Structures are given as structure tokens and as C-alpha cells.
Amino acid sequence: MKHGIPSTQGFRFVCPPLALLIGLMLAVMQGQPSFGADLRKTEGGAAAQPNVKCDKAPTAIDRLICREPSLAALDAAIAPALQDYLDRAARPGDRDARTADQRFWLDGRAMACPAAAQPQPDAAPGGAGNEGVVACLSRIYEQRVAVLRYERNAAAWPRIRFRPTIVEGAGSKLCEDLERDLIASFLGRGLFVNPLGEREIGFVPVPGLGDNPMVRRADIDAYNLGKPFPILQWIADNGGERLPTIEYRVFDSPKELLNAIGRGVEPLAHSVREAAHPVIDIDRLPRPDSTKPQTRPRAAFASSSILSSDEMPRFFRYEDHVYLAGPMQTMLGQPGDLGIYRLYGPARLHRVCLFDAHLPMAHLPDHALSLREIETLERAAGPLLPTGRLCVDIGDEARTLGNHAAWRPWALDRRRPMPGGFNGDQLALFMRNRALTGPEKARQYRAYIAARAAAVEALVPFYRDEFGRTPAEAKRFAALYLDRKISDGFELDPDDDAAAALFAADYSEKHAAQQAALAGDTAALREELGPEPRAVAKGVKGDLDEPLVSDTLEHPEMLRAVLELGLDPNEVGASGRTPLMVAARLDLVEAAGILLAHGAALDTRAKDAVAQTDSTGDPLCMIGDKAAGDTPGRTALSYAAELGSPEMVRLMLDHGADPASPDSAGRRPADYVKNRTGDAPQSAEIAKMLK
Questions:
Q1: pLDDT for residue 477 is more than 80
Q2: Which residues have CB under 8 Å from 190's CB, separation 6+?
Q3: Is the pLDDT confidence value at 395 over 60?
Q4: Which CATH number fits domain 502-611+628-689: 1.25.40.20, 3.40.50.2300, 1.10.10.10, 3.30.300.130?
Q5: Tens of pLDDT along 51-70?
Q6: 122-181 pLDDT, tens digit each
Q7: pLDDT at 295 over 80
Q8: CA-based nearest residue to 312, from 205, 222, 234, 228
Q9: Where does 408-470 have alpha helices with state H?
Q10: How confident is the model at residue 11 (pLDDT cuts 50, 70, 90)?
Q11: Where in the chain is the domain with CATH 1.25.40.20?
Q12: Which of 50, 352, 570, 583 could cysteine-pair with 592, CB 3.0–4.6 Å?
């Protein structure tokens, strides 16, 4: 939320609640408008042409769509969707009805987004001046695309079990039209969809009442008495610590509102709120009978006047009446029911429709997102991320990702930037390039790739069996979810130049020598090193790299070759460790022996590492077990005691390693044996050696 107005992506006012049935039932989509689908330009079935000059567009809304790139993109998308919608009409009369429906929708845009009819003329496209207008138009345009594609999508995906259904109100035109739009929204590709579309009654900001809370106004005949009155919507962003909260309050007439504003008691937004009264008086609503089990929960607005954006109701018009759409949650943070109400007064309301949908829960056998393979993937990815941790956000975005992955997987197709502005492809590039910085990262990357492949294969049956997708489509959904899951835990510190360098276009080219060393390609490495191998080896090492000697550790013959070329066996890398320490950590006994034979020092102590950072700096957010941090001053024997085999420890001791040498924390090699994750007999044997 910016400036107190929900952003396009974050229009959670509808998603999780309207959303939570809409919100995961539906999910408020973001839109990409299209005045190109305006029937004024598509009459007769011809696809709209987006090259009309903006100043010649017929309305202020169309001119804004033309000038705003994100809306113009939807303009291009809605035109073919409309053409398909018209082509699927069974009879000429049906086509005429659909054409009229599109005209009705076009006329309804200004009602749903009243500020769009008068956008700020000096606001730049995408700028703050038109931000709320663009967000509103995006929502209704994307919902319209979903409706236009409803028949095509319903035919393509016939086996989906988790679609919305009518529980109450079957047979009424209102409920059946809304059910169609709910299902259309459910089948849409966007993360969030507002199924009310142009029916929703839009609010406009009230100037002069401040930005937080943001106060917005609409004049609505909420009780269907032929008497519109001002309804004000207070939106508090809560400093980003929790979801925004919304409250509706009402004045009996515009004059009463003007009087409240005119009194000018500061803070003005607070005094105006106090002068109003609730649209729904929860204190006067009938109380549930505690002796009778409730078959359906009460709507959130019946229990509190101040609601989170996940729970807020929405006013909309249908034909000649005003209704309220209110989410009803059966479980916190999960989709529930959506009720449609007609109000007859502050304490009189009648539920007209009830929609329901069920998301696969974690305790159900068909819930695939709790697979062991996914946990393995998270653990494998953690060490490759900037902090060496997988810090998945536990907020609304993370919840939305999981719910959509299990319930509306096609929504994963939407490419959403990560917190630092990166997408999934850039994450893959980061992790691959990180693997070029040393043998430990290369080994972790191989483990990550293997874990990802196993997790993808484990998820494929779920998407194949529950959604009727081909194996190839199911595999794509699985990969999208897994990559997004890792991406959500990735955040870079913008001031960390070393980490940012991993995205450089020529990073791989500059690391040709490292690639050859890690792959064991001796001929390629010799070519890269040229006639001055020692100078070249120092010149190609970046801020995050280990020495080339360390990169060759898994290839003994190559290791011997580079040492004979004069490369330093005691050079310290970005990890603060020498090649011998790295060999000890990876339990490469043969490599350690070669290093010792070529003058590797046993008494060198580890230095501070060059760390990749994130903007939070939180070191304790790894999923699963938290790895103990490293300590400066450790020796190769210390690492061998913790991570190596008895053979590695014996090799070090035979060459004169000191088992009593402490690190900067005062811990000796024997103190690290208890941290080993190998089998107990090996640990006992190593402990005995170090006494």
C-alpha cells in the first residue's frame, strides 16, 4: 500500500477475504487494461488496434489506458479475449447479447473507478498522481479478461476439484451470475481477481483529511431506500507491521458530512469519524444462538466494525439494487465462504447468496506442498542465498504463494519480482554464478539442482492428477512453484557490491578459469592461465572467490599440476580459509595429502569471511536447523575434527597439527567433534585421537 491506497498487486481488500473465498477462491487479480477491447473499436468482431492516438480516445478512462503502459498491456490482452468470447456464442442472438454485455461493462468502469473519469492531468504514467486509479482499473480489467475467457478455460481444465460453488441462492440470477464470475476469476491467470468487476462501487479520496488513515468517499443507497448518503472508508496501513485495516462509517446526508468537516477539530480525520455512525451496527445485530451449532460462520463485518483488508466487505450494484459482499473465514489465513447480503438498515440484513470452496489442507493426503522433497530443496538452497539462510517471508505474500500453488497453480505463471526486484531467472543466474566461487558452493549447487529435480518429480503427480494436466504442464507448474518459493526467500543488500557483481553479464566469462578448475578440465585451465600462471591466478580471483588451488581440490591430478606451476597452497580465499582448510571441510583426504606435500601450513588460522549480506541482516531465519556460525582463528585440524573422517584427522596429526590449538573463542579441535553429523563411532574415534 502506498499513500494509503492499495497497490494493484496488494489489493488484498478482496483477495484474502473476498479473497479468502475470493482470495484464494478468487484472488484479486491485477490488471492490464484494454480500451482496445472497447466495442467502439471491435464492432463486427475485428480485433482492436492499440495504435489509436491517446488524445483521440473517446473517454478520459480510455485516454488514461492509452498513456499508462501497464493498462495498455491489458488493452492488448482483452481484445482477443473478447473476440473469443463473441466467437463462442451459439446463436446470433447470443452474440448480440454478449456485445451488449461488453458495452454495459464499458459504461460501468466509471462507476467502479470514479476517480478514473477525472485523472490528474499532470500526473505522469505510473506516477503517484494516478496510482490509485491505475490500480482500480487494473483490477476490473483483469477480472473482465477472466470472464471473457471463462468458457475457454472451463473447457480446458475440466477436472479441477476446488472451484467455487453455490451453497445458497441457486436459481437466482444474481447468485448464478456471480458464481460464473467467481469461477471465471478462479480460472484466471492472475494472482488476484476481483470478481465484482465493474459492479463494485468505487470510492474516491477525500482531500484534506490526511494520508493515514486514508479517507475515501462514495455516495451509496446502501439500504435500497432510494436515498443515497455518504459512506466513508477509513484505511489505516498500520505501518506495514500487519495488514491494513478498513472501517466504513456513514453520514445521513452530504450536509452532515460537510458540517463535520467544517467544524475542523484536529485531527480532522478522527473527529469526522466520530461524527459518523456505522453502516452496519454490530451491537444491534441478532446474536448467534449458542445452543444451536452454526452451520456457517458469521461474516467478519458482523463481529467487528474495524476489519483487516482480508476481511473487509465490498459494496456493489446489481441491476437496481446495492449489495454487500462479505468474506466468512472458517480458519484464519485460509479461504472460506463468501456471502452476498442485501441491507435494509444498520441492523437489518439478509443473505442472498453463499459461495463456498475448499482448499487442500496440510492434513489431507492430496496436499502436496508438505512433501519431504520440498523441505530438502529449501535446505539445499539456503547456503546459496546471500546470508546463507532461507528467510522466507511469513507474511501475506508467502501465504498467497502456497495457496495458489496448491489451488490455482496457473496463477504462478505471473512473473512477480522478488523483494529486491529480481525474478526467478535472475535467482537461477545468481545461484549458478555463486557456484563458481569455490568448491563448497559448487558442491552445494549440485545438491540444490538434485534436490530441485527430486522436488519437481514429487509434485508432478499432484498437478497431473488433481488438475488434469499433461506431464509436461504438471512439471512446469511444479518448477514454477519451487522456484518462486526459493525466490521469496532471496533479498540482496543494495550496498553489497560483491554480491551484486554476481549478476554482471560477463561474470561467467571472467570465471572461465574457475569453471575449468571446478570441472577438472586441465587443458582448459592451462589455456586460461597462459604463460604467467601465478599472475593470472591472482588476477582472476574476485571478491567472493576461493583460490584456484581450492577450486581444483576434487581433482587430484589437476591439483598437482597447478601446485607445480607455482600457485600458492596457503592463499586465503573469501571464506577466510586456506585450501587445506577447505579440503578438511570437504573430507578430501588425498587432496589434503597433496597440499601438505607441497608446503601447505597446518598452523594457519582462519580469517573473517567476506559475507554476502541482505538488507535485514537477520542470521537466524533459516528453515530447519540453524547452522552454527564459523569462528575466526580455527585451524585445518579444527575443521577436520568437525567435518572430516578419522583418516583426515590422522593425516593432520601425523604431519604435526596441534590438537590443543584454540581458536578466537577458546575452543580446541576436540570441542568441535560433538557438532559432527556423522555416525557416533567415527565421532568417538576422532575424539579419542584428539585427547
A1: yes
A2: 27, 29, 30, 31, 142, 146, 411, 414
A3: no
A4: 1.25.40.20
A5: 447 888 888 888 888 888 88
A6: 444 444 457 778 888 888 898 999 999 999 998 888 888 888 889 899 999 999 999 999
A7: no
A8: 234
A9: 424-434, 439-467
A10: very low
A11: 502-611+628-689
A12: 583
pLDDT of residue 612: 78
CA-based nearest residue to 169, from 52, 318, 306: 318
The amino acid at residue 609 is A
- CA dist list (Å): 220 to 105, 277, 325: 20, 15, 15
User: 518 pLDDT exceeds 80?
Assistant: yes
C-alpha cell of residue 12: 488484498
Residues 6+ apart with CB under 8 A from 440: 546, 575, 582, 585, 586
* Mean pLDDT to the nearest integer, 450-473: 93
Helices (H) and strands (E) in the chain, counts: 27, 12
Closest CA to 32 of 56, 57, 8: 8
DSSP assignment string, 467-488? H---HHHHHHHHHHHHHHHHHT
Of 659, 528, 645, 546, which is closest to residue 588 (Cα–Cα)?
Answer: 645
DSSP string, 306-367: EEETTT--EEEEETTEEEEEEEE-SSTTS--EEEEEEEEETTEEEEEEEEE--PPPTTSTT-
Task: Indicate the SS3 state at residue 2.
Answer: strand
- Give the separation between CA 387 and CA 655, rounded to whole angstroms: 35
Cell of 658: 596441534
207: three-class secondary structure by DSSP: coil
pLDDT digits (tens, 9 = 90+) for 617-673: 555 554 444 444 578 999 999 999 988 899 999 999 999 999 999 999 999 999 988
Here the contacts of 662-667 (C-beta below 8 Å, separation 24 or greater) are 662/633, 663/605, 663/606, 663/631, 663/632, 663/633, 663/634, 663/635, 663/638, 664/631, 664/632, 664/633, 665/631, 665/633, 667/631, 667/638
Tell me the three state secondary structure of residue 121: coil
What per-residue confidence (pLDDT) applies to 10?
26
Considering only 271-275, 459-463, 570-574, which range has the smallest mean pLDDT? 271-275
Cell reading at 612: 554476502
What HEC string does 625-637 produce?
Answer: CCCCCCCCCCCHH
At 222, list the grid cell.
446502501
Q: Which of 171, 168, 184 is nearest to 338 (CA)?
A: 168
| Strand, helix or coil for residue 526 | helix
CA angle, residues 619, 554, 509, in degrees to nearest 5: 75
d(CA 380, CA 385): 10
CA-based angle 101:102:104, to the nearest 5? Answer: 65
3-state secondary structure of 415: coil
pLDDT of the residue at 670? 92
pTM, full prediction? 0.76
Contact 554, 546 (CB under 8 A): no
- Higher-confidence residue: 117 or 229? 229
651-655, long-range: CB within 8 Å, 24+ apart, which pairs? 651/589, 651/592, 651/593, 651/596, 652/584, 652/592, 652/602, 653/689, 655/596, 655/602
